[in-house]
Amino acid sequence: MAEQEIQQTEGSLPDSGELAEAAPEAEALRQALEEEKKKSAEYYDQWLRSVAELRNYKKRVEQEREQMAQEAAAGLVLRLLPILDDFERALAVLPDEKLLRFSWIEGVALIYRRLQATLEQDGLRAIESVGKPFDPYVHEAVFFEEAPAEQDSLVLAELQKGYRLRERVLRPALVKVGRARPQPSEARPAGGPAEETSGEKRVPSDLESGEGTLSEMEKTQPGGA
Asked: CATH code for 126-182?
């Protein structure tokens, strides 16, 4: 039985001639397989690139949409700031605090507070100015005023409030800035110290009240020439 199986196996194996004829066909299949692998890798790479480009496009569209919304909100808030200023001026010039007990004045103050709270919810924040160093990014100097040296370049007064909308400066604050007084310089004679032009000695100040010059006084002394 074993010998018959070996003979059958040997009979089923291809001979050398058949192998030689099948070699070119196998090589062609191998090359075709390699080409298909390369195409598959290229298609996969292109797919990854397309997915990345699509994601970047979605992010860019979302950012542009958010930026447009922020620009629209900033424009609206900027147009509402003068109304907020008017409310603050009106409440600041009340002649007497007792007037706040009137219902219509309380209503005006309530409208002001609600408007302010609504704008703050959208990211509006007032810029702190008084007592702070002058910052050209958030402050706009209207005029300068002489001040002590310790108040040099400090904001002395705020003429109009400035505001930020989130991280953006929506309106700079109009301010008055201190400028240190110039220090008086020591006065010096233009020509410098006077030089002695003759051999005669200058009389000291305590002798200027006496009569005659020093040379005459020396002549009157004993032993003088």
From this structure: 2.30.22.10
* Model pLDDT for residues 56-82, shown as the tens digit of each residue: 999 999 999 988 888 888 889 999 999
pLDDT at 14 over 60: no
Find how far residue 156's CA is from the centre of its chain: 23
Q: What are the Cα distances from residue 47, in Å, to 33, 43, 59, 60? A: 21, 6, 18, 20
The count of other CB atoms within 10 Å of the CB of residue 217 is 14
Q: What is the dihedral of CA 180, 184, 185, 187, to 10 degrees?
A: 170
Q: What is the DSSP string of 131-180?
A: TSBP-TTTEEEEEEEEE-GGGTTBEEEEEE--EEETTEEEEPEEEEEEEE
Q: What distances in angstroms separate CA 101 from CA 25, 96, 109, 114, one per listed residue? A: 104, 10, 11, 19
- 139 exposed, middle or buried (CB, 10 Å; 0-12, 13-18, 19+)? buried
Contact, 162 vs 126, CB < 8 A? yes
Residue 64 has φ and ψ, to the nearest 5°, of -65, -40
